[in-house]
Design a protein that fits this description.
Order of helices and strands: HHHHHEEHHHHEEHHHHHH
Number of strands: 4
Helix content: over 70%
Largest sheet: 2 strands, antiparallel
Shape: globular
Radius of gyration: 20 Å
Length: about 325
């Protein structure tokens, strides 16, 4: 249950950052310093090396079946929404063309086109995780060399991005996530000394003061301080999750449920931020609301829609 609680806390931090960092930049700085590495580390913890080539193929098919349908479903829904807006509100077909191209380009920060920038938004995580887990299958066979090799590949991806500022199908950003996935895999079979945990938490505090990490934007202010700091933030969430599980069973069940729904919440959060469904709903109410109320409504709506989706017969298969 601890890992589900961690994912529950993590997904709440994701949408909190996106909805409220505009008014609380320090909050956004803290969350960005570790919230995506947290998910990569957890995913790595449940990864394993392959035994045969056929086993590797089975693992890759399993990862693809788990992650790619959610990405495609999210993008297709956004395209259908843009089609609806083009037909009902005569907003033109530019957004439809842009999102259709984005589905195949699949880049967090794609090129500018006559129809706008090709950006897949929040669901970049799904493609990056798919690539990182597939890469881990092979470098994990190198044993103790896996971690330094994953770091070298990540640094290479960051430098490549400086020359070629695109990450088609999240290839570059997937390699920057690889060290976190590799560390998660390593943590499963090794006991982490307390001094390492304390040191990483110290690095996290230092990174918050003197550096800046945003994986989505390829912003690594000071490597390896950012990297170790992200691990420190993840350790803090781990300790908090253990405390919640041991002291408050109702809260543990709530966060664990959100963790189980985290994939659906992430996808519907991406849909909501693109389509502004919450704003459309609130526009039907003849009352003037403060800005923070609108964001809070969108926040709650995202979780509510995801909770409904995971119970629908066809859609729940994508997120189960």
């Amino acid at each position: 249950m601890t890992f589900d609680v961690m994912k529950g806390i993590g997904i709440l931090l994701v949408i909190t950052d996106h909805f409220f960092n505009w008014n609380h930049p320090i909050l956004g700085r803290v969350i960005n310093s570790f919230h995506m590495p947290l998910f990569f580390i957890i995913a790595g913890y449940f990864s394993r090396p392959f035994t045969t080539i056929e086993d590797a193929k089975r693992c890759i098919r399993k990862y693809a079946k788990r992650l790619l349908p959610a990405f495609v479903l999210t993008q297709v829904f956004i395209i259908l929404w843009d089609v609806l807006m083009a037909v009902s509100e005569s907003k033109g077909w530019g957004p439809v063309i842009r999102e259709s191209l984005t589905l195949f380009w699949a880049d967090p920060h794609g090129p500018q086109t006559p129809w706008g920038q090709l950006s897949i938004g929040v669901v970049w995580f799904l493609l990056a995780l798919f690539l990182a887990k597939c890469a881990l299958l092979f470098i994990s066979r190198l044993g103790g060399y896996a971690i330094p090799i994953s770091i070298l590949l990540a640094l290479g991806a960051v430098m490549l991005y400086r020359v070629f500022p695109y990450s088609i199908w999240c290839i570059s950003i997937g390699f920057t996530a690889l060290p976190f996935v590799t560390l998660g895999w390593w943590f499963r079979t090794h006991i982490v000394p307390k001094w390492v945990i304390v040191s990483c938490i110290g690095c996290w505090i230092a990174a918050l003061c003197f550096s800046h990490l945003v994986m989505y934007d390829f912003e690594w202010g000071c490597f390896p301080l950012d990297f170790l700091g992200a691990c420190g933030g993840t350790f803090c969430v781990l300790l908090l999750s253990r405390l919640i599980c041991s002291k408050t069973a109702p809260a543990a069940r709530l966060f664990a449920t959100l963790g189980i729904w985290s994939l659906a919440i992430m996808c519907f959060h991406d849909i909501e931020t693109h389509c502004h469904i919450g704003n459309h709903v609130m526009a039907l109410i003849p009352v003037s609301f403060p800005v923070w109320t609108k964001y809070l409504f969108r926040y709650v709506l995202t979780i509510a829609v995801a909770a409904i989706a995971v119970r629908l017969p066809l859609i729940k298969k994508v997120f189960a």
